[in-house]
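Chapter summary example.
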Amino acid sequence: MQQIYHWAVLLAFISLVLGSFFFLSRSLWQDRNMFVASWKEMTSFEKISLQVGLLLYISIPFLKEHPSKDTYLAHVSIDILTALSGALFVLGALAFLKYAHEHKKTDKHQDT
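The structure predicted for these 112 residues follows.
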C-alpha cells in the first residue's frame, strides 16, 4: 500500500511539472513577437554579453574538471571567469527585460 502511495505522489509531482511546463511554453509562444522585437532592439554589446555570459556558465564546469584545476593560476582564473560570467549574463538579461518591458508598454498604449 505504501508503494502505491509513493507512486501516486511521484505521478502527481511529474504531472504538476509537466503541466507547468506546458502553460509556460504556451505563454512564451503567445508572446514570441514581443521577444523577437526585444531581441532586435538590443545593441550588439548587450546581445554579446548575454551570449558570452551563458556560454561561460556552461563551460566553467568543464574547466573545474580539468587536470590542471589545482594550480593557482587555474583556480584564480576559474573564480574570475565565474564572476565575469555572472556579471555578463545579468547585464544581458536585464537589457533584454528592459526592452521587453518597453515593447510591452508600447503595445498596451497602442491597444487603448
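To summarize the output: The chain has four helices and no strands.
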